[in-house]
Batch of 2 targets.
Target 1
Amino acid sequence: MITRPVTVVAVCLSGLVLLLIGAVLLIPAGLALHVTLAGDDIPVLVLPLAPGERFTLHYYHSVENAPIWEVHSMDRFGTIFIEEERYEKFGAGMGKMPGVGRMVKQGKQEAVVDMHMPVGEFVLRVGSPGVDHTIIWRGQRFNLSKKIPHQRVRFTGRAVTLFQQMQLLQGFGKAGPWHEPM
């Protein structure tokens, strides 16, 4: 027969173990890029990122119909930086900014590299299919223009807990990271 003190100790130890597991799952564990509908903060895409890890926004210039790649990173505080811009020909609004990065030739592309310019969070009006605003992350492509053309989306970096990070990574093995807008 189990005595009352043994039962109390067992319940207390079980509670302590559950509390520790819960605390570990709620500690900050990394970052995530959140792409949300601008007015409602409804998630469209959430991607886990390590500090300094890069993701690319690729699209076709609306006037020149030329491909453009904007390479971004995020620091450990969730600040988004533009690291590099690549394009095959200049279009309206393209080119080097004085004092930011350096121009190089990469095959048939021009590039502004070594930018590391903080942009923080930013809003993008997603273009039509054909403009193909696409996020490239870890070799995967997420075409925003096919999913939510003409919508305004906000790009933000946010801290995530270990539990949230585990959920995000688990989602990539199943249906993928796309969250349907409501």
Target 2
Amino acid sequence: MSTMIILTDAQVVELNNRIGQIQRLIESAQVIKAGGAPQPAAVTQAKPKAVKAGVTRRRRRTLLNEAKVIEIKTRLAAGNESAARIAKSFGVHISTVNNIKYGKNWAHIKVPV
């Protein structure tokens, strides 16, 4: 004989949360079989990436150099152009130009006003 249980929406949400917690515990913990020794949870190891001889880190390709940053800062100081237009002319994102404008990037480059 089956029994019907009526739950409110809040009870369904709480039950789903608890089921999720139990699933995470099972995935992260060791599972102990009845009468047996603990069995470690399955662990997958990431395959190491192939590394060329002598190369330890990949370098980023930079679109800007000091001369370009000086030009960007000069154009920003003139106030004739928007950051979006300057960014487009240098092939960079507007956030890059704004970071230069507010001193988050390339702050060591000083341009006389």
